[in-house]
């Protein structure tokens, strides 16, 4: 199959996947039971070319996130049995990182990978408000996946038009996350940061980045992800506490790990296997940006 066609299909598949996740999130908000969700069907006329089928996973439409963990296969507890804490690194080569850490379940923090990133100095609430509202993206914001958590803010438009008191963290607390989904959007943001130097040279990333932002005391609840690959997350501003918990079947064998990611540090962790929650620590607004790598 032509390489360009394959890349085009993968791009379209990723966009469709994100839109399905967004739809499923809205279904989950309705508190529908799994019996109802299981009756959702694709139109009978949908035909997928045979040369593309190998790119598809077993399920076209996934269960809501609150149900996914109930049906995941049991983990081999060797994934966590000898891991007692996060490993902190600096000045490591891509070859060393690939050999020792890149595709393992060891959580790693690289402390020197954001040097010379413009994002460290320039990313802020006001930066993203201007980026999404004033750079001709206003009509397309929130087209991909968006996490409102417990903020009550139902879209990026609501996030970036909230009252000034709440925006500067002196009002009602908030924390949100979202993905990019347009190539020009991702490229523009990536002009403020570069590919982490320690990633394996053969590793590739989708044209999709994730941004998480909010104030002290807020964060993501305990959960396990269902994404394609391991991810890196760069702490641009603020300090964030991470709690990693082993899968339920491994709680008697593995340790619960708690650590803090400081501004300028990058965390690499397999969030598909470690249960995790985050809490923004007192001080500055937290801004985290990251991506998956294969």
Automatic annotation (TrEMBL):
Pfam families: Cupin_8. Gene3D superfamilies: Cupin. One of its GO terms (molecular function) is 2-oxoglutarate-dependent dioxygenase activity. Residues 95-248 form the Cupin-like domain. This is Cupin-like domain-containing protein. It comes from Pieris brassicae.
């Amino acid at each position: 199959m032509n390489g360009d066609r394959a890349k085009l299909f993968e791009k379209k598949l990723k966009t469709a996947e994100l839109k399905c996740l967004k739809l499923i999130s809205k279904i989950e908000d309705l508190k529908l039971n799994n019996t109802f969700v299981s009756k959702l069907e694709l139109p009978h006329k949908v035909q997928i070319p045979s040369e593309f089928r190998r790119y598809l996973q077993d399920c076209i439409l996934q269960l809501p996130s609150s149900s996914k963990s109930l049906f995941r296969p049991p983990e081999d507890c060797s994934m966590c049995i000898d891991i007692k804490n996060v490993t902190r690194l600096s000045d490591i080569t891509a070859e060393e990182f690939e050999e020792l850490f890149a595709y393992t379940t060891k959580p790693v923090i690289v402390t020197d990978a954001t040097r010379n990133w413009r994002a460290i100095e320039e990313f802020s609430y006001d930066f993203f408000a201007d980026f999404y509202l004033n750079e001709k993206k206003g009509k397309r914001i929130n087209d991909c996946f968006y996490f409102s958590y417990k903020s009550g803010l139902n879209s990026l438009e609501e996030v970036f038009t909230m009252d000034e008191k709440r925006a500067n963290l002196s009002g009602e607390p908030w924390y949100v996350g979202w993905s990019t989904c347009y190539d020009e959007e991702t490229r523009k943001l990536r002009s403020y940061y570069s590919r982490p130097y320690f990633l394996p040279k053969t590793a590739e990333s989708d044209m999709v980045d994730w941004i998480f932002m909010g104030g002290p005391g807020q964060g993501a609840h305990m959960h396990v992800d269902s994404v394609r690959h391991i991810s890196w997350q760069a702490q641009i501003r603020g300090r964030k506490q991470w709690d990693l918990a082993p899968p339920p079947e491994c709680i008697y064998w593995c340790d619960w790990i708690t650590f803090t990611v400081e501004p300028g540090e990058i965390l690499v962790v397999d969030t598909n296997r470690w249960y995790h929650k985050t809490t923004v620590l007192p001080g500055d607004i937290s801004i985290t940006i990251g991506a998956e790598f294969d």
